[in-house]
Amino acid sequence: MARRLQPIFDSILADARITGRDRAFVESLQAHFHARKSLTAGRRRCLREIEDRLKAAPAAVDATLDSRLSDLLSRATTAGDRWAMDFIPSLRGQLLAGRDLSARQLDILTKIEARHSDKAQAVRDNWASSFTSEMRAKLVIAARYYLANPPYFGDLAAKAIEDDSFVPSKRAYEKMVENKYATRVIESTLSKPKFNPGSHVALRANANVGWAIPRTSTGVILKADARPVTSPARGSKVYSVLFFGQTTPNFVEERWLKKGKR
Questions:
Q1: DSSP element (H, E) containing 147
Q2: Where are the domains of the chain?
Q3: In degrees, to the nearest 5, what angle opens at C-alpha 181 toward C-alphas 178 and 185?
Q4: Which of 26, 152, 165, 184 is the one with CA 20 to 30 A from 199?
Q5: What whole-number distance in Å separates Cα of residue 101 and Cα of residue 118?
Q6: Cβ 239 vs Cβ 223: under 8 Å
Q7: C-alpha dihedral (217, 221, 222, 228), degrees to nearest 10
Q8: Environment class of residue 175 by beta-carbon count within 10 Å: exposed (0-12), middle (13-18) or buried (19+)?
């Protein structure tokens, strides 16, 4: 069995037409074969079907489409578009194996081409050069919010915090910074504080603060913007408040505070 199957594996994996998920599948079959020294009847059938499909594939392919895929893969690689870098080889493998691309696949291919056209690249270059300090400030605010509320945008948020020269793509910026949740967080962060240091405040009756402090407690504001905003709720600016009778300040969101009596 080993002598009959190993040449089939060698032949298939040496074929440039086997790419993406097909190649990964054959490699997984080979790993199983090496570990068990055999394949089940079902696995052998799958391997033979792949071998037969390659033998039946036409010797020539659509050169125009093949060139189109190769050029697009180069552009996607330069741009670091990882999804496209995985998707395009799978299309090329399908083409080389003699299978036509579906209408849906061709539609996605066209969209990727638009994303990596000369015009789109020029827009990206202009975006990077026009990235303002105000945009960076909003990026950092959104990044802190998402790091405090995983798992969304984790890698992008971490990079924005760690590298103050990092400029995300326009698409990534819009998705992370301009969605309704991040917009509210940014609004609360940048809004003018309703209470200044030294102001006397009291807890609202509906305050959701979670400590063993009576809702009738009053105190004094020590600092506004004492911590990054981590809630998209309106009025989530954070204050450091020292309540009378306490020795340690507490962090309280603006929406839970009201003006206190002296």
A1: helix 133-148
A2: 2-56, 63-116, 128-190, 200-259
A3: 90
A4: 184
A5: 25
A6: yes
A7: 100
A8: middle
